[in-house]
């Protein structure tokens, strides 16, 4: 059964370029886009207390499985103009059926 969804999440990584005077300028680049559902969490996951990062999460993005080569560290998500730190990217029980991406809201307008 497919999860589907109507929300697009852009997973982004940070790269660094140099400006005209040689300064390093951080730039976020979209590495992958996923379509699914965004849901608010209260940060007190009853079923996943094994990981403090999940407990710090404010939102969860659930989508159909797609291979994701990015690591959560140093990755962010942009959804509807809002920015989230990616806390955990989970493929539950390694079944390759869905992804659960735990997010922490950090602000709006990238």
Task: Outline the fold blueprint.
Elements: E1 7-18, E2 24-40, H1 52-56, E3 59-64, E4 75-79, E5 82-90, E6 98-108
Antiparallel strand pairs: 1-2, 1-4, 2-3, 3-6, 4-5, 5-6
Spell out the key features of this protein:
110 residues; mainly beta; Thrombin, subunit H; 6 strands
What does this structure look like?
This protein is mainly beta and 110 residues long. It has one domain: Thrombin, subunit H (Beta Barrel), CATH 2.40.10. It is built from 1 helix and 6 strands; from the N terminus they run ββαββββ. The chain has a 6-stranded antiparallel barrel with strand order 1-2-3-6-5-4.
Number of helices: 1
Compute the average pLDDT: 87
As a percent range, the share of helical residues equals: under 10%
Radius of gyration equals: 15 Å
Q: How many E strands?
A: 6
Count of individual domains: 1
Low-confidence segments: none
CATH C-level label: Mainly Beta
Give the structural class.
mainly beta
List the strand order in the largest sheet. 1-2-3-6-5-4
> What portion of the residues fall into strands of 2 or more residues?
over 45%
CATH architecture: Beta Barrel
CATH superfamily: Bacteriophage SPP1 head-tail adaptor protein
Distance between the termini: 34 Å
CATH fold call: Thrombin, subunit H
What is the string of helix and strand elements? EEHEEEE
